[in-house]
Amino acid sequence: MSYLELASISHYYFNEKHCTHALDNISFQVEKGHFISLLGPSGCGKTTLLSIIAQLISPTEGTIKLKGLPIDQHNISIGYMLQQDYLFPWKTILDNVCIGPKIRREWVTGDYDKAKALLAKVGLTDVVNKYPDQLSGGMRQRVALARTLMTDPALLLLDEPFSALDFQTKLILEAFMSAMLKDYQKTSLLVTHDIGEAIAMSDDIFLMRANPGSIHLHIPVPEHVRNLSPIEARKHPEYHQLFDQIWKEMNQLDTENDASLV
Amino acid sequence: MIPKTTHPSYDVYLQRLAREKRLIKCGQFIIFICFFLFWEVSSRLHWIDPLIFSSPSRVANLMVRYLLDGSLWFHMRITIFETLAGFFIGTIAGIILAFFLWYSKRFSAIVDPYLVVFNALPKVALGPIIIVALGPGYSSIITMGAIICVIVSALVVYNGFHEVDANYIKVLQSFGASKWQNFKEAILPASLPTIISTFKVNVGLSWVGVIVGEFLVASKGLGYLIVYGFQVFNFTLVLYSLVLIAFLAALMYQGVAYFEKWLLKKLR
Question: What's the ipTM?
Fold first, then answer.
């Protein structure tokens, strides 16, 4: 039995004039501790899929099971990281990190120490009483990671969390995040349109196509690339091979899509 | 910390800045003096009718007399109280209404046409009805001050609620936040600047409501003095009240402006 199971998820968006088919019959399974990437062009429903798994919206059809049980029957927390950090500018870093347990009404007195320990773990010790605008983009995204880990999420959903950062910070943060998540044995889903990022970070890649959003290909990342850190992985010859392969697939999808639109 | 550096032309820049400030203050002072001087002189030389336009010296004399016999403070106190009460009630009711509009989309859709009508309606036209309904006293005047700003602040604040980045809500919802928690943790703090900006507008509006209310019904207060002065053709009294109102309204506006600065600094 897999840790996370998506069974024929379909989703439609309704409004007065249209009924848009956003996701079509998506099924896949994720093993515990694995890192999955959903790779695809913009508009292929990646973010919709994440929102469904995060239970922010409920799918029109299909079920999601976690450890064999429908996901809404668990009292678990699911971590969600967005394109930007979305730290609350009027709260201190410490209060930002502590927001999860407070919202979930699970606040215990030891949580301040836990938050400080997590901040230390992400390499930020002397910032607890600072405000988000006093931190750099990379630091803020690390605070956002600490905030997400604060509720011990059973599942981590990453919606292009590195896309707003400059390239160097992005590489450093990828490596850092990858190590952290391995350390904490977190099962994670990353949404991205960056082929390199998907290969460097994941165990499995699902290539998605648009109109309607569906899984086009399942691409396992070769064993010896998986076990490297993202920065090392980018140097591996098989990384480049895989990059080319995915690049061609995505171009092909693009031309098919263009042709169908004409 | 950025190390302190300096440069010879920085001093020149600071001097120029200080000079500019002095010039502006100077200009403002000159306008002030000229206005009252011209008023006084033209009244004494009968360029304008002193019976209608009075003169600064007569207004000042009246002010001193009323200050000494206590009636200045008496009337001023009443009007200030009514204005502040109208301002607070109107603003707070507006924010609460904005909360309900935000909380329930259906509610907001249902009341939308009524809000449009009520917002477009000149609220002072409701004066007679309010006075008949609540009786000629403080309560109807305060209601006038409040009703004039409640809808417009509700609409502005509601708009502010909608402009808050939806991703903050997404963060909170991923932790399972309730609607009230969304409001408390993200919507309200993020729209505080909008809320404070309505304070500034409402100070002016509640003065309008209260003065009109006093015109209609009161037997004390600065608005009453204006109407009374008008009826007995004592325009020194009218101008005296007007000067006081201008001064107090400006003072309240400044008070709110300082409060805004302080709060924004606190919120950074």
Answer: 0.86
